[in-house]
Amino acid sequence: MLTYDMSMSATKRLPADERRRSILDAALIVLAEGGYAGMTTARLARKAGVTEPILYRHFASKRALLRALLDEVTARMIAAFHQLTGGETDAVAGLRRICLAYPELSRRYQREFQIINQALLEANDARTRKLLAAHYDAYRRFLQDLIEQGQRAGSLRHDIPAAAGAWHMIHSALGFLMTQEIRGDGKDSIHVEAFADATLGGLLKVP
Question: What is the pTM of this model?
Fold first, then answer.
């Protein structure tokens, strides 16, 4: 038998953009608590204070919601990369700035990164994994462009494909950030400097 939830009837009517934002904010909480596999539309609707039909007006599926979250995080990270490297003509210096910013960016977007990495482990369908791959590929394109600039300037090795160098940086960042809590050295600038040196060392052209 269908039941009517009186709490839902009193849901405050919001403009579409605000409602979408409130649903995304609720999704961050639900995903952080139970992971991508554990998120159901019923649970999310309750957390957002809406009915499931209203939820579906904004996001047709759980995958669509994950895509919106990924698009947001990607846009914020690429904007941060542009801010870090803006005005820097030395590609190596730009890459180093990004490496040094990893700890701060990981703290700023800790919950989002936790959700994305967990979804990467839990997602078992091709379309969801394709969304996650596109998220990381955006980072790859940005880093690859910088590495190619360094190769053209003669400061980075030509024998290592720029795409491989970009993925190396992404893999290094993921490993660094995922083990930062257990290492307990994330706030130590010496360790961050060493991480940047180790990440970029194999790409640098030996004089």
Answer: 0.81
